[in-house]
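Predict fold of MMPL family transporter; 766 aa.
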Amino acid sequence: MPLRRISYLALLVLGLLSALSAYYVAQLRFNYNFNDFYPAGDPDLDYYQGYTRRFGNDNDYLLLGLEAPAGQTVFAPGFLARVDSLTRLVRRERHVVAVTSPTTVSNPVVEGLGFFNLPYLHPDEPARRAQDSTLIYRTPGLVGNVFSPDARAVTLVIQTTPDLKKPPGDSLLTTLRSGLAQLHFPEKDYHFAGRAVAQSVFVDRLQWELAVFMSLSVLLVTGLLWFTFRTWWGVVLPLVVVLGAILWGLGVMGACGVSIDLMTALLPVMMFVVGTSDTVHIITRYVAELGYGASKRDALRVTLKESGFGSGLSALTTSLGFFTLMTSTIRPIYNFGLFTGIAVLLAFVLSFTLLPALLLLLKKPQLRVPRQQGHSWDGVLGRLFRQVLARRRLIFLVSGLVIAASIGLATRVRINSALLDDLSKNDPVRLDFAFFEQKFAGVRPFELELKPAGGRDIYDLAVLRQTEQIEGYLQRTYGLRFAASPVTLVKSVRKALNGGGLAEYRLPADSTELARLRSKLKLFRKKPEFSALALPDGTAGRLTGRMADVGSIRADALNDDLRRYLRTSIDSTVLRTRLTGSSNLIDKNNENLTLNMITGMSIDIVMVTIIVLALFRSLRMTVVVLIPNLVPILIVAGVMGLAGVSMKVSTSIIFTIAFGIAVDDTIHFISKLRLTLAHEPNLFKAVRHTYLLAGKAVIVTSLILVGGFSTLLFSSFDGTFYVGLLIGLTLLFGVVAELTLLPLLILFFYKHKPKAILEPQTESVP
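Predicted 3D structure, encoded as tokens:
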């Protein structure tokens, strides 16, 4: 079959596959599910899921903070009237289960056969304002939860339906903002926090940033390709191939029913810069052959023969760099690694099917400066090669010093994360969350399950006293600013039975008094606040609360101290406890970050070792190849330590990805060296020829990669920003190591100082 007919057939098949991919891409949706960042397969996750079935999620709430007008307190009648109107509006919303508001909190009192809720506030009776405020600020559980300590702000705690998704969550937020505007609350005086807020903001920003990054990447790559090839086809063909790979990769995601989230949103940008590599190597070699006088068909044959093997190996190592992210227990990272790795392989397939077909069908390009004896790049690379040889001792010395300094600085890197790590410190959403930490109990949830032992139930006096002891420790030492448990229920019922006086807010003095209280608890057990803290049969209870987001390092230390306290100070024959909750699960991710990173890097190193051994059957060459690719990783780790950048979920992926991408050019270099050594036995001449042959592609692809990743610096997410910055730096240091350390290491260590090395000046540059 003629080659042109094969090309048309290939384009037809590829077009049909692209149409199928486009169909599945249309099914893709943006999503940000906080629960996806829990460690999949972890026993603590299974336990927490059972816990939520008994007590509900600890993050199904929305906080709405309202500041009083300047010069007023929250007890001003006009302000309270607006708060009450807002409360009634919120209660009518479809996805709102319950609302705790300053105007709805009440003091229960039992009289005779029934109970009454006496409001703490009487907005219509100004004379009672001082009495009301005094009572509120003496009542446990109100200050820091509903009222701020300085009486300048209040909070509406809005309980939402479980696992509220983005569309209804956005609808609720829109309604609340509309109501706030109608009630004349200025934007600067109200603040939102909660999962619905984070979910809404993250998804909207993902959509916007994906469009921005893709636009910037297209402009940047187009400019670099034009600067490199100075022909329209040298720009258009790589873009067609890469966009096809992105379309296919996203199509596979859509077919698997995976949504675009904070991590997978990086796939198009990653592919745009990474997927260009093979096309640049192919077109560079193709243009070189044409420049040396080869026909179009011969140039393409030589290009595919010489580039196919190296490109296949580099696609394998790059995809492995992403596939190793599948060792992560965090689902978004797992999906990002899986589908980006697949997309890299698809880019390789398109580079060696779609690109050759298009090159074959196009007319032979007219090069701007045809040269029979080489290209201008040869002279530049030849001079650079000589400079590297002349300054080899300086290069080795500087490299050694940089490595030593980087290792020292890298030891300062710490694993630390917070709930809103991906937002910058000055982000409006993060500032809103900070408002609740400054004025109220905070936004970090705390959960401790309580299980009575020895045949007791949760309302046993010994169990209640142990629970009260734990509460005291949590508030004094742990940093819990708000806490609620079955102890809260029993104290509240006792207070209600004794006229509602604050002095009666305490546990019963003995079992006889408790027995009388237990008979009255049935009056309250149907109330939501009771079922949220204790199971109806009393077999288990919940100690819940909120605190400041102290970061995972501090939280781990606090949790270790808490577990030690529970082991040594709480009688396990009376009460057993287990720390759980969404925050605990997020913190657990940090325990796996180092292991996942080491596992991923180890897999990458093993695969590169196998490839080099298969090519050269030399352990020395394996070491020679690994050093220039590990040095940039060490330098970037040192940069992180120097700049105080913490290791967290978003930055933990940097090293495995960067190594997998950086080794790409090395694989191309050594595969070309292997081909050259087959007909050039002199190592020096072979290295020099390979340097001239591969140098241009190495520099161009590295510029594209660094430039492409630099577009991520415009992200409003800190994690994305650091991915762009640190991977870009790794690749920048990588190309320097590739053009300096790699040839020197090959010449000096692959063989014992061949004669050609001692007299490099006898070699001329073509």
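The mean pLDDT is 84.
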